[in-house]
Automatic annotation (TrEMBL):
Entry-linked PANTHER family: INOSITOL MONOPHOSPHATASE (PTHR20854), INOSITOL-1-MONOPHOSPHATASE-RELATED (PTHR20854:SF4)
CDD domains in the cross-refs: IMPase
Protein name: Inositol-1-monophosphatase
Reactions catalysed, as given in the entry: a myo-inositol phosphate + H2O = myo-inositol + phosphate
Keywords: Hydrolase, Magnesium, Metal-binding
Single GO BP term: signal transduction
InterPro entries in the record: IMPase, Inositol_monoP_metal-BS, Inositol_monophosphatase-like
Length: 287
């Protein structure tokens, strides 16, 4: 996914002079996203309070999904269908809806499902509005704590009403770096090998368990950088825009955009050194 400045018409050296007509401005889309995400987070939190139910597994026996994941996504899809008929929605649990609208909504109903399962207060509703594959409005809401991060393309990133400025760290060896691991044992073994080589080259590593919240933490300077292999669009569509609008570079390795093989979010001064080390360690490779 590539974050370009659709609102200002900026894409590399190509300028366009008008915001595309997709029936709403980013600020309007953000208002819808916040309304829907808050209601969805309330559902996630109230269902957790009643106890976790309907637990099944997906790709492996540790890749869990709960009745709350499914209920929250159904709620988000229904709410967006009422507010923005014709738009499409891509969600983790039910995939993509039909439609040919200019706006695609990307939702992770509960990002950090294992944290949710254990009652660790680090799980979020992540919701982004994309136009032509580019996120233009985003909200991440920690359903356990109520903390909320938002951004619009070109409009900055916020935690509540506080505008965010990410780390400006210039030394990779001084950087606190967050990451995460997949559910497949062979992939985790490869990720651990990468970490063994990286951990002596940075200040320290943190693993919190939800990509969207990791990206928001990086956006507010709680860590200097974040990287992870194997993310899906719903994991990073919203958090990636928030991190970018807070001043981080968000992309993949070797000049590629962020995607399932790798996402790196880092201050401009250390994005290159971190990405080069990750490429050297084959962090985007393996199973
Ligand atoms: C999670 C990601 C996290 C990753 C976890 C898991 P989920 O998403 O947000 O970054 O390290 O393994 O994939 O499965 O909780 O929606």
């Amino acid at each position: 996914m590539d974050f370009v400045r659709i609102v200002t018409g900026e894409k590399g050296d190509q300028m366009t002079d008008t915001t595309p007509d997709f029936g709403a401005q980013p600020a309007e889309l953000l208002a819808i996203a916040v309304t829907v995400a808050r209601e969805a987070a309330d559902t996630a939190r109230s269902m957790r309070a009643e106890g976790v139910s309907g637990v099944t597994t997906k790709s492996t026996d540790t890749d869990v999904v709960t009745a709350a994941d499914r209920a929250v996504e159904r709620q988000v899809v229904a709410a967006l269908g009422a507010l923005r008929p014709g738009d499409t929605v891509l969600g983790e649990e039910y995939g993509g809806t039909d439609g040919d609208g200019a706006v695609r909504w990307v939702v992770d109903p509960i990002d950090g499902t294992v944290n949710y399962l254990y009652g660790l207060p680090q799980y979020a509703v992540s919701l982004a509005a994309e136009v032509d594959g580019v996120a233009v409005a985003a909200v991440v809401r920690n359903a356990a704590t109520g903390d909320e991060w938002t951004a619009t393309l070109g409009g900055g990133a916020f935690r509540g009403k506080k505008r965010l400025s990410a780390s400006v760290q210039t030394e990779l060896g001084q950087a606190l770096v967050a990451t995460g691991f997949g559910y497949d044992a062979k992939r985790r073994a490869h990720q651990a090998e990468v970490l063994t080589r990286l951990i002596t080259r940075v200040r320290d590593i943190r693993r919190f368990g939800a990509a969207s919240l990791d990206l928001c933490l990086a956006a507010e300077g709680g860590v200097d950088a974040y990287f992870e292999k194997g993310l899906n669009p719903w994991d990073h569509a919203a958090g990636g825009l928030i991190a970018a609008e807070a001043g981080l570079l968000v992309g993949g390795l070797n000049g590629r955009p962020a995607g399932p093989d790798m996402l790196v979010a880092a201050p401009p001064a250390i994005f290159g050194p971190l990405a080069e080390l990750l490429a050297e360690f084959d962090a985007a490779g393996g199973p």
